[in-house]
Amino acid sequence: MTRTVRGARLLITGAAGGMGRMYAQRAVAEHAASVTLWDRDAAALARTVDELGAISKGRTRIHSYVVDLADLGSIAKHAQQVRREVGNPDVLINNAGIVRGNEYFWQTDNGEDTRPTMQVNALAPMYVTREFLPGMIANAYRAARVVNIASAAGTLANPRMATYAASKAALIGWSDSLRIELEQADHGNVKVTTVTPSYISTGMFAGARGPVLAPILEPGYVVDRVWRAMLKGAPRLELPWSVGVSRALRGLLPTRVFDRVVGDGFGVYRSMERFTGRR
Questions:
Q1: Consecutive 10-residue runs of the chain (279 residues): their mean pLDDT?
Q2: Which is it for strands 91-94 and 144-149: parallel, antiparallel or unpaired?
Q3: Cα(265)–Cα(278) distance, integer angstroms
Q4: Which backbone phi and psi does 210 adopt, to 5 degrees?
Q5: Complete domains list, the chain, with CATH
Q6: Which residues are identified as catalytic?
C-alpha cells in the first residue's frame, strides 16, 4: 500500500465517535474512495456522516449502517448490503469494543457483562472479517489491510476486568493466527495488524489509572501510530513500549515474582480500582 489510502475503500466499526471517527477523518483527509461506517448509535452515526461529508466535499463517498455487532445476523445482512452498494473494502478496521469493569468476576452478571463483551470484542471481528476477507484475497493485485484493535489487557491479566481481558486475549490469538495463515497461503496482498494499546483517554476507560511506565495515551497519538502501522502492514503494534516489556517479563519471571514486581510494584493490578467508564 502507498503512503496514504487515497482511492481505497475503508470500513470501520465503532465509527460514530471516539477513535473510530478519527480513523474515518483520516481516511477522508487522504481522499479515500469511500468510507463505510458501522455503529449501533444511529444518532451519533448521522452526526458523524454530516461532519465527514462537509470535510470531504464529495471527494470521498460516505456510507453508514446501523449495525449491532453482537448480532451475527445483523453483521451478515449489512455485509451483504456493503458488497452490493459500496463494494468490498480494501481496508477493514475492527475498532468497536465495549468494557465493563471495577467488579470482581463473581460479582458481575454473566448475561449483562460476559456475553456482550465476548460477542462484540472477540466474535464480531472474526465474523466481520470472514465476510470481507474472501473479496480481499480474490483481488490479489490490490493491497488490502485488516486492523484489529485489541488491548494490552489481552497480553497481561488484570483484576476487575477479567471478561474484557479474556475477550482481547481471544482477539489477539485469532488475529495473529489469521496473519500467519494468510502468509502461509501466499496471500501477501492482505496484511493483518494487531494493535495492543494500554489505556486511552477516550472516556471508555474513565477513572482508570496508568501504571508505572504506561501513562494514559492520547487518542490522536494512537490513531497516528495505528495508521502508519496499517499502511506498512506491520504485524503488531504495542503502545506504549512498556507493553512489550511487560509481555517479555511475564514469560521470563516466575508467576509470583511477576505479580509482585509488575502487577503490584508497577501498579498494573490497581489500575482499575477507580474505573467508572462512560456514564
A1: 91 97 98 98 97 94 97 97 98 94 79 89 98 96 96 90 94 98 97 95 77 85 98 96 90 93 86 72
A2: parallel
A3: 28
A4: -70, 130
A5: 9-270 (3.40.50.720)
A6: 164
